[in-house]
Amino acid sequence: MRFPDLDDHSLSSILSFLDQRDSLTLSLTSCRIHSLAKRHALSEIDIRTAAQLERICSYLLADVTNRLHFVRALTVSKVAFGIRYYEAGDFSAAHILADVLERASPLKMLRLDATGALFEAEPRVASAICRLDQLVHVDLRGLTSPSFEVVDRLSCAPRRLSLHGYVATLSKDRGDWTSLLSASIMRRVRSLRLVRLRIGNPRDHSGDDNPCHTPTQWPEVRDLQIEHTFVSVATLVHTFPLARTIHFQTRKDIKDWEQRNPADLPPWSLTTETACWPYLDRVDGSNPDFERWRIACKVRWLILDSGSGSMISRTVTFVQQTLSILQRTWPVAFSLHGSPGMLDATFWGDLVRSAPHIRYLDLTLASGGKEEDKIPWTVSQPT
Q1: CB of 135 closer than 8 Å to CB of 159
Q2: Rounded CA gap, 113 and 47, in Å?
Q3: CA-wise closest residue to 60 among 97, 23, 106
Q4: 45: closest CA among 77, 92, 78?
Q5: CA distance 110 to 148
Q6: Is residue 259 a contact partner of residue 227, using CB atoms and an 8 Å limit?
């Protein structure tokens, strides 16, 4: 059987292994596979430079039905607006991006960088995004406080939601995103990632003096990633009661924000928290994150990073805290990332006694920030 004679399903399966350039090349070889190959080539668009922004958007707009409506995933990097670090950026071509978004009704995934500045420079972009009701994956980065109003107006119901605060915003200037926990966009989210935000206790922000008032809960959320964000574990446990996968990176309690300038807080003065879910499939974080959060529940897979460079990563303290965490979580699988110098001979005996239920041990030993070795080791005990 000749290649062009294959059925559409088989051809689509083959095309799924090709990158964008190869798909476009293949589309020129046969009328039979032209539409399938072009559809695949245009299904994911990644715009990384200013030149690409104008050229690709103009190409898509030239034939909306047979080009733009094939796009299912669109990523626009901040570099497309001339931003690499903290530059003001050039949004002179933002109008053509707005034209694309206004006509991209079948879009399923959208990732935008420098979102706050982009919304301010071209309000049509914000309005267009609010009307994209088919989005299932939304990733907005560089959000400013005023741009939260746009997030609250989104008509889609994504399954994956990722919101990043403006990277150059100082901690003391970080906006209050507590109302996100009651926003309608959360109604179908299963995977939630929050980066550089500040979220208070919803009960304190409800405006309801009734002591029986219950803040909104979102039981759909299963995967929770919190990075460089001020929010209490108690708030997360109540709002996302059925979360099963947790990733923390430099998360701090909202009380640390309220006490003083959080940038001035030494690590040992941060609030200790005891709220916890009844059971977790996977927990991922650094040693400092687990010191602040006294996790005490069964965890199937525990991923622990030593948090190199912090004061509590000194050998004795690191070993003591690691063993304490293992005793409180009883993991079946344990991944440990640390320096070889932190794991002396006595550590392994203490590890067996502290976590007898471990059946899989994954080590990543790094020195000077470079990975030296990764040893997967399956541990089995006689029954």
Answers
A1: no
A2: 11
A3: 97
A4: 77
A5: 17
A6: no
pLDDT-based confidence at 111, cuts 50/70/90?
very high
Q: How far is CA 158 from the centre of its chain?
A: 14
In 10 A of CB 184, how many CB atoms? 12
Read off the pLDDT of residues 123-140 as tens digits, 9 standing for 90 and up. Answer: 999 999 999 999 999 999
Look at residues 242, 246, 204 and name the one whose alpha carbon lies nearest to residue 227.
246
C-alpha 335/C-alpha 301 separation (Å) is 8
Instruction: State both tokens at 340.
Output: 């070889």
CA 248 to CA 286: how far, in whole Å? 8
Question: Using CA atoms, how far apart are residues 48 and 2, in angstroms rounded to an integer?
Answer: 38
**Cα separation of 148 and 150, whole Å?**
5
Length, in residues, of the chain = 383
Please, which pLDDT band fits residue 143 given cuts at 50, 70 and 90? very high
Q: Which of 185, 173, 161, 80 is nearest to 125 (CA)?
A: 80
Dist. CA 254–CA 252, nearest whole Å: 6
CA 97 vs. chain centroid, Å, equals 24
Q: What is the rounded CA–CA span in Å between residue 372 and residue 204?
A: 48
State the Cα–Cα distance between residues 264 and 47, nearest whole angstrom. 39
Contact 18, 26 (CB under 8 A): yes
pLDDT per position as a tens digit, 37-82:
777 788 999 999 999 999 999 999 999 999 999 999 999 999 999 9
What angle (nearest 5°) sits at the alpha carbon of residue 342, between those of residues 337 and 346? 115
Report the C-alpha gap between 241 and 181 in whole angstroms. Answer: 13
Rounded to the nearest 10°, the torsion over CA 368, 371, 372, 375 is: 140
Residue type, 307: G
Give DSSP secondary structure letters for 299-311.
Answer: EEEEEEE--TTSG
| Three-state SS at 225 | strand
